[in-house]
Every structure is written in structure tokens, then in C-alpha cells.
Design a protein that fits this description.
The structure is a homodimer of 285-residue chains. With 285 residues, chain A is α+β, with helices and mostly antiparallel strands. The first copy, chain A, has two domains: 106 residues, Aminotransferase class 4, branched-chain amino acid transferase, N-terminal domain (D-amino Acid Aminotransferase, Chain A, domain 1, 2-Layer Sandwich), CATH 3.30.470; 159 residues, Alpha-Beta Barrel (D-amino Acid Aminotransferase, Chain A, domain 2), CATH 3.20.10. Chain A contains eight helices and 14 strands. Chain A has a six-stranded mixed beta barrel with strand order 5-6-7-8-11-12. In chain A, strands 4-3-1-2-14 form a five-stranded antiparallel sheet. In chain A, a hairpin with a 2-residue loop joins strand 12 and strand 13. The two termini of chain A are 16 Å apart. At the A-B interface, helix 1, strand 4 and helix 5 of A face helix 1, strand 4 and helix 5 of B.
Chain lengths: 285, 285
């Protein structure tokens, strides 16, 4: 059905308890990018939250192909969602009485940061409200519980910034609303070791750095380190590698995307054009 | 429309970001209980999350009356929900571009703890995963982001308990999935001062304690205090005052609901029968 007609019941615990996990894979010129990795992560998220829709992994993958085919899109953002559902037994409040279900849809390409903003470099704001700790909600289980990220967006909006960087209680950078954060300093690339999704784009960036002989690490980044960085960029499925040009009052590299960020961004899209990690969309299923 | 036909778009940020607040008021024998207080809290939640559906407070109240009337219920659980919506401008990722909207429904009475379990006293499990801190997500803003509470339910289920008590990182009791917690010790009633919703039933219990000359306070309760308590009970709109009889290995009062818990429960329902805080449902709007 058209996505505009798709619906979630307001009584589904996926809504009333945000008891739901999801993943998003993108399609570039008729090919999924790292579909296997997204399905792996989606399965891990479902296991972590004890969600078990009836479809097998292979059936889910076939549904994703079919969504893209039916939507008629060559470039797309494809979501897979596992929902808790409602109890089979009327009135039950027991999780184990719920029928879990699977939902998927393909929509036109979405950039977390609009393309014109990417071109000048995103302006980011470091949020004052701390990220939910990993001990309370595992950030590697991809979820819709964005309250802390949305609070960061409120602050960013109030300061005229495009998006937010959220830190933990101790002041260490975690991630932003829908993206991982990277900093570049003296030619070395670093991304936080805590409070953040293990992004597939993040992984791709780390691999690309290896191939480009850039030293890259997953390590603590304090908010105070942002001011002294040479470059900052963001990584996400919904947009790829997106350079920033400002964080709060700090202006990087003449207020433009930095050279290493741009090299990684170019390499990321070259990888797509080279057909690496590509799964051709099957259109006649 | 019938609630089974109601739908939330899977693209609504109320779903994909759990960017939504809600409240729930109950109807007892054709009368809302503390409707004004629920509307006050709902308005405060909306303000805190910058949600502004087009309906006025009076229009929202009229919709709640109409939902109950159309559902033909004398006893009901009535939800009001403010959703972020989707951006007016295609592709926008800006919160301020979203059209917020309001949703309401009336369903038959729901007990968070089933009535047979209430009769023997709920068996509770103290969750090991800590509650999301107040600094990250304000628990007084009624929200659907239940991941930590759901994790507590998983643990409760694994240990054969009916529901969970969730503590903060420092080990202080906060609340459970859908209810506030109270302990009774040497005749004094106490409920946590942190990490929890300011429940309307909680407030009612505190007021009733005053009227019954029971000393009641909002104060820290450490998880270690639970073992030495004389009684434990829960408070929520969806069930009222619900005594517990066990917390982990501790069995209270001969494995039955305690006498003070039962007195407060009886006073709570007597208040309903006496028509206090009552707003008659208008059925011909």
C-alpha cells in the first residue's frame, strides 16, 4: 500500500511504550548498500528487546526488495520496523502475550542535514541536557526514544544551529539526532566510544580511513575537545558523510567543510559508484 | 471512529522519535475523576515538549466527553495524546515545520495489575537496569519512552513476578511501569521524591493520608529500604491503589495486602462513590 495509507494502531505498545526497534538501509542507484550489515544489526536489536515477528530474515529481506520495487525508487531510504503489538488476550498487560509484527517501507531519499546545509557545512550546537546513559537504554539497539536528542534539537533551534551534539553526564560526546559524530585533529580521525549507535556509516568511515592511511580510532571525546578540533563531521545512512563548519562559537577551516572530511565524503560515494557492499534491488518478485 | 480503526502514521515523529506526550483520565460510573488535574498536567507536558495542537483546552475536554459518549462506556480509561506530526514542508527535518495534532480515545477500564493479582497482592521485582535519569528525560512530562520500564518487565517476567520496581543509578526507588510506588513503615507512608511521574493517584493518596491522619511524605526510598518496609503499594489511574504482597524475596504481612494499603484503597474508591473531584460525562454534545 502507499505509505500514506500505512498505519500503526495508537494502542500498539510500539506506540504507547515505544516498544519497537528499527533499522534503515539506503538504496543508491538501484542497489542496497550494506544490506547484510543492516539486517544483522536489526536482528541484534530485535533479540535485545525480545521482539520476534513471524517473518524469517529472508522473508524480511524479500519484503524490503518488494517495497523499493513497488515504490518505483532508484534511490531510497528503506525502513524495517519490529513492533511489540498488542496482547492476544484482551486486557492482558503481559509482554509475552503480545503478537509482534514486522513493518517495512521505502520512501524517497532523506538527508538528516539538507544538501545546501551540507555544502556550507552544518552548524551544530552542543546540548546541555545529557544523553540517556547506556546503562539505562542501550544505544546500540536502534530505537525511537529520542527525547534527549529532541531536547538537543530544541536547543539547537534556539541558537540558530542546524542540529545538535549530545554529551553524556560526564561531558563526553555521544551522538546527535540521527548521526554519529567524528572529529579530526592533526590528521587523526576519532569517533566516540560511548553513548552512541554503532552506525553502519560510522563503520564504513573507519574502514575508509584504513584504506586511506588515515589513523582512525573509537575513543573518548570530551566536549572541550571540540573547540580544538581541526574538523568535525557527521555520519549517517540518511545523508552519508556530512561535514560541519561550526560547533557553538567555534568556526572550523574558514567556515567551510574541512579537507579530510571532504576526502572521506568523496571516498564514501566513490565506494557506492564502485558497487562495493551492493545488493541489486530485485524488481520482479 | 472505532478505536480499532484509528491510526498513527508510521512516519509521524510521534512514532519515529516518540515525540509525543499523553495523559490518561478515568471515568468511574459516568464521571471523570480529577479531569481538571489531568488536563493541567497534559498542558504542562505539551508546553515542556513544545507541542501545540490547534485545539483549545476546552475543545480537548469536549472531545474527551464525546469519546466516552460515543464508546457508550460508564467506566472507562480515556487517553489524550499530543503528537508532533510530520513537517508541512516535504523533506524538512525541522521540528518547527511540523503540524502538531491531538488524538483522544476512550476504551474499557484497564488495570495495570489484573484484579485477581490485586486481590492476593502484586509480586514485584526490583529491576537491575537503572531508570533513565531525570536530567536526561523529565519523568514528570508524561511520555511513552518506556525502554527502561520494559527492561524491568523483562526481568520481572524472568523471575515470575507481576511487575517491576525501577531504581535510579544510586539505588533509589523511582517508579514502575505505569505506576508510582509507596512504602509503609511504622504507620508512615512514603513515596519517592525522584525519577517518577507526579501521579494524580499519587497526589490523591497523599491527600487521603492527610485526611486519615496518616503521616505521609515525598522522600528518598532506597532499594534496601524495601526489605524492611511493613507494606508496599502502587498507585495509578489505571487501577487505583494496588497493594503488593512480595518484592523479590521479601513477603509482606503474611503474603496478603497490608491493612494500611487496604484502608487507603478503600478510601480512594469511597472518594469516587462520594462524587469528589467528579465531572459528569456529557452525553449529548
Amino acid at each position: 500500500m502507499p505509505v500514506a495509507e500505512a498505519s500503526v494502531s495508537p494502542l500498539d505498545w510500539a506506540f504507547t511504550r515505544s516498544d519497537v526497534v528499527y533499522d534503515v538501509v539506503h538504496v543508491f542507484e538501484n542497489g542496497f548498500f550494506r544490506l547484510v550489515d543492516h539486517l544483522d544489526r536489526f536482528e541484534a536489536s530485535m533479540r535485545a528487546r525480545r521482539l520476534a515477528p513471524p517473518e524469517t530474515r529472508e522473508e524480511m529481506a524479500a519484503i524490503l526488495h518488494r517495497c523499493v520495487a513497488l515504490a518505483g525508487l532508484r534511490d531510497s531510504y528503506v525502513a524495517m520496523v519490529a513492533l511489540r503489538g498488542r496482547p492476544r488476550i484482551a486486557g492482558s498487560r503481559r509482554i509475552e502475550d503480545c503478537d509482534n509484527h514486522f513493518m517495512a517501507y521505502a520512501v524517497p531519499w532523506i538527508d538528516v542535514i539538507p544538501k545546501d546545509v551540507q555544502a556550507r557545512g552544518a552548524h551544530l550546537w552542543v546540548a546541555s541536557r545529557p544523553r540517556v546513559p547506556d546503562a539505562s537504554v542501550d544505544p546500540t539497539v536502534k530505537n525511537y526514544q529520542w527525547s534527549d536528542l529532541t531536547s538537543g534539537l530544541f536547543e539547537a533551534q534556539d541558537h540558530g544551529a542546524d542540529s545538535a551534539i549530545v554529551c553524556d553526564e560526564a561531558g563526553f560526546v555521544t551522538e546527535g539526532p540521527g548521526f554519529n559524530v567524528f572529529v579530526v585533529k592533526d590528521g587523526d580521525v576519532r569517533t566516540p566510544d560511548r553513548g552512541s549507535l554503532h552506525g553502519i556509516t560510522r563503520r564504513t568511515v573507519l574502514e575508509l580511513c584504513g584504506a586511506m592511511s588515515l589513523k582512525a580510532s573509537v575513543a573518548p571525546i570530551h566536549r572541550d575537545d571540540l573547540e580544538g578540533a581541526d574538523e568535525v563531521f557527521l555520519a549517517t545512512t540518511a545523508g552519508g558523510v556530512m561535514p560541519a563548519s561550526r560547533v557553538n562559537g567555534t568556526i572550523y577551516g574558514n567556515d567551510r567543510p574541512g579537507p579530510i572530511s571532504l576526502r572521506i565524503k568523496e571516498a564514501y560515494w566513490q565506494m557506492h559508484r564502485d558497487g562495493l557492499h551492493r545488493t541489486e534491488v530485485i524488481r520482479d518478485m
